[in-house]
Amino acid sequence: MIGFLRGELGDPPGGWPEPLRSKALAGRPPAKPQQELGPDDEVVLAQAGPKRQAVLNRLLFPGPTKELEAHREQYGDTSGLSANQFFYGLRQGDEHRVQLERGVELLIGLEAISDPDERGMRTVMCILNGQLRPVVVRDRSIASDIPTAEKADRSNPDHVAAPFAGVVTVSVSVDDTVDAGQTIATIEAMKMEAAITAPKAGKVSRIAVSATAQVEGGDLLVVVS
Hints:
- This protein is an alpha+beta fold.
- The protein has six helices and twelve strands.
- A four-stranded antiparallel beta sheet has the order 1-2-3-4, with no helix packed on it. Strands 5-12-10-7 form a four-stranded antiparallel beta sheet, with no helix packed on it.
């Protein structure tokens, strides 16, 4: 409401009644500077669709839009969850329905939660559409002296990240030349092993983990410049 009274969202016909506006804004900082339209923004705003909505959100509500983008970067699109599922999580013994898209639902059930390890990680056993699946999550209520691993920057094409939680074995060294698609590490989880490949050709400029290390999904493994 304060932003509305400042004129950040435009002014109503005839303006705001006085002295309501002056009293409400007394002692408060001035309005935020207006967002400037870039050349690409003007093209997108002339069209309909989700890209236009994203530009409008960024221009009208820059703060909440930044928080939403950061949330989706870390957790994905959680808009399909109900309010109870989002705020309170899974309830043991209940079956939760999550609509992934029109006509596609995911049935989730909570089976068990393990004790935390030395890193504050717990293994959550879930039933996903009838299949038992383990999910490793961090219990943020537990303090851990083990330093948190560096996360890969998804916007940086040089960063190679762990695809999921598991034990990674790096098979390259710093200054090695690699080809696009070449295996540079392997990851093992639940007795299954998968290859991690270089996203492009280049030279290994940095290895962010030890030769064999326990990692979480999204942890930075290798930098290929």
